[in-house]
Design goal:
single chain, 226 residues, mainly beta, Immunoglobulin-like, eleven-stranded mixed beta sheet, four-stranded antiparallel beta sheet
Amino acid sequence: TVDAPEYISTDTFDADICISGVEDLDSAQLKLSFDPGVVNVTAVKPGKISGKEIPREMWCFDKNNTILVTSNLGGTDGVSGSGTLMTISFDVIGEDGDSSVLDIVEKSGSFVINTESEELPVNWTDATVTIDSAAPLPPNETDTYVYVKNLDDDKLTVFLFIDGNFIIDKGVSSGSTKKYSNYKLLEGLHDFKIKWYDLDTEKWYEVTAEYSVSGETDLQVRLILL
């Protein structure tokens, strides 16, 4: 999915290529078309899934007003979860009222491969951006650091969800605090949930909380046994 602002009043903007519920991702290729009279690609940055960076292997301009990007986690066990495959930066070239479709070229151009060298099914969704000098500025992006503290007497595997999306799971030792990662979130309210299975009670537990983030935010989510 192309996640880009619908209306743009700035000279530059970023578009995230998002993916959710992927399993054992190993590599990906993306071909994206755009109207060069309205916007132009200036950079492609690595993405992040479940707190793990998705290295950008290469990117280049291709024919028919497209770019080609490849990403590869080579030599790893792959990654599962939700996040971004990459972030594409654009300059704004056109004038007020001009629009460009950011179109993922699916046929033989864009695909995702798992650790078994199999192509995974992906529902690609495009986006349209329109230049509008009167549009409000987009919310600022934050660096949000998430920590989980385990108050149980056993080591637990704790699953983290942000805004309903599974992000990552990690083992957290008894009495310790684990830094999960830092996440790029827009300023404002976000829902955070942690979920774990307790072997003593043989039950699943979860804690959900809403936090407002801005600038650089440290969040410590505490495990509370129910």
